[in-house]
Amino acid sequence: MMGARAEELRFVEDVIALNDRLTFGGLPAAVAGAPLHRHDSPDGDLCTIAVFESQLPFRYVLGIHGFRLAQFAKRGWICPKLLYRSASSHEPLREPGLPDSVHIVALDTETGRIRGYTCLTGSPDPEPLPLDNPRRRRLTVERDHHVDLLTRLAAPGRTTHQIYEVKRQLRDADMARSVLAARVPWHVMVGLGRSLLALRRARSEVLVVGDGKEGASLRHLRLMGLDVEVVEAPPPRVPRTDLFWPLFDTDVHARPFITRLSEHFSEDITAIETFLRTASDTESIRVLMQDRAATYRRELQ
User: Which CATH number is correct for 6-300, 2.60.40.10, 3.40.630.30, 1.10.3210.10, 3.40.50.880?
Assistant: First the structure.
């Protein structure tokens, strides 16, 4: 945050403090209809739920977008000057009329705090278009990396409304190292996997795009059983007018990817779920990671 003025930094601190006061213990009961996924951990310390944004009261939508912004601010991934000018306490919301986003939230049942999170963002096209249609709107990852990910995937019957962008893979920055902290990303991954399976049932096919770093989000996606294809592209070029440009101001850049649900994806997610029912210490999580890594290597053969 070098170069930021004192009032800009104070505003960032106020935004973080405001969102840190929010709790989400009432979110599961406020969901309209059945969630895409819900899992309550055996020891009762974590509730993971996946829902369409339209299923949530607006106050929770704002709260989730506030959590996202605060988490990025804590990591130094936002521009204080631009946040100050925006006078906003949450990330920008999507325009109405677009395909529904899916929020996957892992809640600490004791405090009501969000401990883990990711989302699936639908196409920016109000109406479904062929992937090679020149009128289709570019996905965020395509704009950031100046790359066309979808045209080469065009096929009869395949539209932009079957494409989802996985974004904001977060664990609460305030979590201390603990068994719970080690488990949270896996519970979020299961929620993500169950959401993708539900979307595939509804749309016959789902493709997922995004960007990530090797050893971080790309590794997690592979370990959960997704077929990840990394696409060669130049480093992202994000203008300094973008609120999140500091996220890209690094020597180690995220790489765009396309991923598909493999034929055994459902079995992979079930295997992780089964393991989490008895994962009670950090050694259990280490064994889970080793098991998933071995499975991934076998599937490559």
Answer: 3.40.630.30
